[in-house]
Amino acid sequence: MRAVEGLAGDPGAQPQRTMLAWNRTMLAAVLGAMLVALTAERQQRPVIAAIAGLAALALLFLVLRDLRRWRHDGHGPWISLLHVGIAVVVLAGLGATLAIAGLVY
């Protein structure tokens, strides 16, 4: 890719945009976990609802903590990437558990 002439850009802005993008993805996972919790509650599956609700709170805590810890000193997005990966796996597991529980009963 070729840079646009005349636009030097801000070298510190790209890492910040990357960090904010990872945090938006994590917030989407929080909303997904809340949706799984509400769906489990409607299907009268309190254990799955409790686990999904606790997962949503834990994910929200991680998002807020990562936003506060971000610095321009090279902290990097890797810890946020790890948190997003874990969030996606947990959300997929909760959704699959809810779907299988719905099929069994």
Automatic annotation (TrEMBL):
<dbReference type="InterPro" id="IPR003807">
    <property type="entry name" value="DUF202"/>
</dbReference>
<feature type="transmembrane region" description="Helical">
    <location>
        <begin position="76"/>
        <end position="104"/>
    </location>
</feature>
<protein>
    <submittedName>
        <fullName>DUF202 domain-containing protein</fullName>
    </submittedName>
</protein>
<keyword id="KW-0472">Membrane</keyword>
<feature type="transmembrane region" description="Helical">
    <location>
        <begin position="21"/>
        <end position="40"/>
    </location>
</feature>
<feature type="transmembrane region" description="Helical">
    <location>
        <begin position="46"/>
        <end position="64"/>
    </location>
</feature>
<feature type="domain" description="DUF202">
    <location>
        <begin position="10"/>
        <end position="71"/>
    </location>
</feature>
<dbReference type="Pfam" id="PF02656">
    <property type="entry name" value="DUF202"/>
</dbReference>
<keyword id="KW-0812">Transmembrane</keyword>
<keyword id="KW-1133">Transmembrane helix</keyword>
